[in-house]
Design brief:
By secondary structure, this protein is of the alpha/beta class. Helix content is about 65%, strand content about 10%. It is built from 21 helices and twelve strands. The two termini are about 65 Å apart.
Length: about 650
């Protein structure tokens, strides 16, 4: 619940909209109760055939007569009590009767006061003809109903705007978190986990915020307005009608817990659903190549079946909320009808010895009382949906905020140091690294790479070559030792400052589902088209790009599937060349390129890499020809030798 309160506090930052929504809710509640209360004059006029002015005059006259009679009776009783010096039973009855008369007289005095205050307003604003009075009140009810819905619409729109903005802000924060996390934590959540958080979880939280600031305000205010009107008619009878409220409250608490648990299961199943969906679609070629379509269909059917079963439980509990809350509404109305009818028919003020009203109720009075309770039962029923939305919002907040609070292991320095460009040296000092804290992938590596040096990293698969690259690019921080740039640990530099110096081309080329121009320009967004074309020519990509009908505007498809592996690598190489960085990192960057294209690219690289530090992971002898020195990595250890010694060996 604490996490959801954080979301509500975030929403309060947009307090003008919430305040306006609250005022709209208050107006809706007031008009809701007023519409029901307006039935009283209609019923009174219709049943008795008199105007409200004459009804008010009669009410005033009757109250004054009752006051006069009560004063006279009280005086007589006080005289009899004064003569009763022994405190007999009759004297005690007389004192009890006096107390009753005093209470009744206070009620009648209130009637006299209200009738006198009301009389000028009735004479001024209401017609004296009974039928015209009915038409006026009906017209006011129609107008107030229109205003009520206008206020309701305005309040809903403002709360919806706040909830959607909170949802958008959270999506932005989750997205920011996803692209700033270190790779280990990102892979722990996976693309499917972030996809679920960005869609289903934020929608759950937005629904919870809407439920609180929308229905959780409007519906209770409507209940309060109707119960306040019922209390004015008879507070004792109102309390008697609420006898089922504690039982319903207990059932709602139990139901809330069940809905919250089911919502957590829904969120968990949603992550599994996104996992299977993305994994299968991203690897559809492998699925088809190995004829695993039926297997993947079954996996997808299983996860959607789990979602279906969990969803049905959620639907069951959601549907159960309506009858539980409706029990309270029906209980209130049934109790009021039974007790009220008995009081009106028998013209009594008590039932089972319990006083329900100060004086016998009239038919119009009991009908308005029924209307007030019916008016309160409808928002009570709607509260079940509000509580369901609230529970889903709580679950969404419990999933989102811990993720947002989880800091990246790549900490930014509080006061980052600055270094001139270009750098002088990259060095690794006693560097060790473990992905899981158990197996050490890199062990006490000491290595230095001077500016302008071309280093080839070779060794068997799994020896730690790519890990060294990841540490130099600061995708990870070493678990032991330091990676330094000009003698300063990378952790003391701004992360942006480190990465702006590096251009990276990997074996697993990543392209966006945009144009070729877009993908190359990603290396330096302010580059001109002429600079982009020049970079493409250096990467020997211009030739095949020019053969496309749309040229550089050709869309490459998701992850570049419309291009061959070699074409994708050349576009990635053009992107790195366009970046014009002082450190060029090539991780098997020409592994999918044909021999002739590779020869031409190497000729271009031989000119391009002058006055740049180049770090290459390769198994190809042709690429080794570009290197000044060779670093052999095996079992997490690294040994550096001049390239001439390696070739001689």
């Amino acid at each position: 619940m604490n996490q959801f309160l954080r979301a509500l506090r975030d929403a309060i930052k947009r307090w003008p909209f919430l305040l306006a929504a609250f005022l709209c809710s208050a107006c809706v509640a007031g008009l809701w109760g007023a519409n029901i209360a307006a039935l009283f004059p209609v019923i009174e006029v219709t049943l008795n055939g008199e105007s409200l002015q004459s009804w008010n005059d009669r009410r005033l006259s009757d109250a004054e007569h009752r006051i006069a009679a009560a004063i006279a009776e009280t005086a007589a009783l006080e005289t009899s009590i004064a003569s009763d010096s022994h405190g007999s039973t009759e004297g005690m009855k007389a004192r009890s009767r006096i107390d009753t008369l005093v209470l009744n007289r206070r009620g009648d005095e209130a009637v006299v006061y209200s009738a006198r205050k009301l009389a000028p307003w009735l004479d001024r604003f209401l017609p004296s003809d009974p039928f015209q009075t009915v038409l006026l009140v009906v017209g006011l009810i129609v107008v107030s109903t229109f205003l009520k819905h206008a206020f309701m619409l305005a309040g809903t729109m403002m709360v919806g705007w706040v909830a959607m903005n909170i949802s958008r802000d959270l999506r932005l924060r989750v997205f920011d978190k996803a692209i700033e996390l270190d790779r280990a934590q990102f892979m722990r959540h996976g693309s499917a986990g972030f996809m679920s958080q960005l869609t289903h979880t934020t929608d759950m939280l937005a629904g919870g915020i809407t439920a609180v600031y929308g229905g959780a305000v409007t519906e209770p205010l409507k209940i309060f307005a109707c119960l306040a009107g019922a209390f004015c008619i008879s507070w004792q009878l109102t309390l008697a009608c609420l006898t089922l409220a504690p039982i319903v409250g207990f059932l709602m608490i139990w139901l809330n817990r069940r809905i919250r648990n089911v919502s957590k299961h829904i969120l968990s199943r949603s992550k599994g659903f996104h996992h299977v969906l993305l994994e299968t679609l991203n690897n559809v070629l492998t699925v088809q190549a190995y004829t695993m379509e039926d297997f993947e269909r079954q996996r997808f059917r299983n996860c959607t079946g789990d979602m279906l079963r969990t969803g049905m439980w959620h639907t069951f509990y959601f549907a159960l909320a309506n009858p539980i809350t409706e029990i309270l509404g029906i209980g209130m109305v049934a109790t009021s009808i039974a007790v009220g009818a008995w009081l009106v028919i028998n013209q009594q003020t008590q039932i089972f010895g319990i006083t329900m009203t100060d004086r016998p109720m009239t038919v119009p009075g009991i009908m308005v009382f029924f209307g007030m309770l019916i008016g309160a039962s409808d928002p009570v029923r709607k509260l079940s949906g509000v509580l369901t939305g609230l529970n889903m919002g709580v679950v969404g907040a419990q999933a989102l905020y811990p993720l947002l609070d989880n800091p990246s292991k790549l900490r930014e320095a509080a006061n980052p140091k600055t270094l001139p460009s270009p750098h002088r040296e990259i060095s690794l000092r006693n560097v060790s690294f473990s992905y899981d804290g158990i197996d050490t992938v890199v062990k006490n590596v000491n290595l230095s790479i001077g500016f302008g040096e071309r280093v080839a990293i070779v060794g068997p698969n799994g020896g730690g070559k790519s890990t060294l690259i990841n540490l130099i690019c600061r995708f990870y921080d070493p678990t032991g030792g330091d990676v330094l740039l000009d003698g300063v640990p990378l952790t003391d530099l701004a992360l942006h400052d480190v990465r702006r110096r590096i251009a990276l081309v990997t074996q697993q080329t990543e392209l966006f589902n945009e144009s070729i121009l877009y993908n190359i320009r990603y290396g330096r967004w302010d580059a001109t088209e002429d600079e982009i074309i020049a970079a493409a020519k250096q990467a020997h990509a211009h030739e095949f790009i020019s053969d496309f009908p749309d040229g550089y505007r050709t869309m490459v498809g998701p992850n570049g599937f419309r291009l061959s592996g070699g074409q994708r690598q050349r576009i990635a190489l053009a992107r790195a060349i366009l970046r014009d960085a002082e450190i060029l990192v090539l991780d098997e960057a020409t592994s999918q390129i044909d021999v002739e294209s590779e020869r031409l690219i190497h000729e271009s690289l031989a000119r391009y890499v002058e006055n740049r530090t180049v770090i290459m992971i390769t198994h190809r002898a042709s690429t080794l020809a570009l290197a000044d020195s060779i670093v052999h990595v095996e079992h997490g250890t690294a040994t550096k030798k001049p390239a001439s010694q390696h070739r001689a060996a």
